[in-house]
Design goal:
single chain, 129 residues, Metal Binding Protein, Guanine Nucleotide Exchange Factor, Chain A, 11 strands
Length: 129
């Protein structure tokens, strides 16, 4: 496991995560991920630490209202959020972390436009709305 730092563009929201040396990220084509270029790194809550900026986060929910999309209220960047697929974890945007040398990243495509039909690819047997 390695510790990575990350945050938003203006630096007001910062965090640390622990990730393994081999990471699979998902490139999703749902409306919000496609438009923002989000690359999902799923991190369990015990491997995520918000350092600064909790008071700067703005929440946005849509569709089922389960996912908690969290944006910096100053610069507008969504560096992490609580995903519908893993409500007890965080999805961190790979583009918002300082990746240490030696971490091998594999990008897998995910058809989020048809989330209900494809969710088992990312949730396993978890039930998600």
């Amino acid at each position: 496991m390695q510790t990575c730092s990350g945050g938003c563009h203006c630096g007001r929201v910062t965090f640390e995560i622990e990730i393994p040396n081999e990471v699979t990220v998902h490139s999703c084509n749902c409306s919000i991920c496609r438009q923002s270029g989000y690359l999902h790194v799923i991190v369990s809550a015990d491997r995520f630490l918000l350092l600064t900026g909790e008071d700067k986060l703005v929440e946005y929910r849509f569709h089922t209202g389960v996912a908690r999309h969290l944006f910096c209220g100053v610069c507008g960047i969504k560096s992490f959020y609580v995903p519908r697929s893993h409500p007890d974890s965080f999805s961190v945007n790979l583009n918002c972390i300082d990746l240490p040398k030696g971490v091998d990243v594999t990008v897998k495509e995910f058809n989020g436009r048809n989330w209900s039909e494809n969710r088992k690819q990312i949730t396993g047997n978890q039930s998600s709305r």
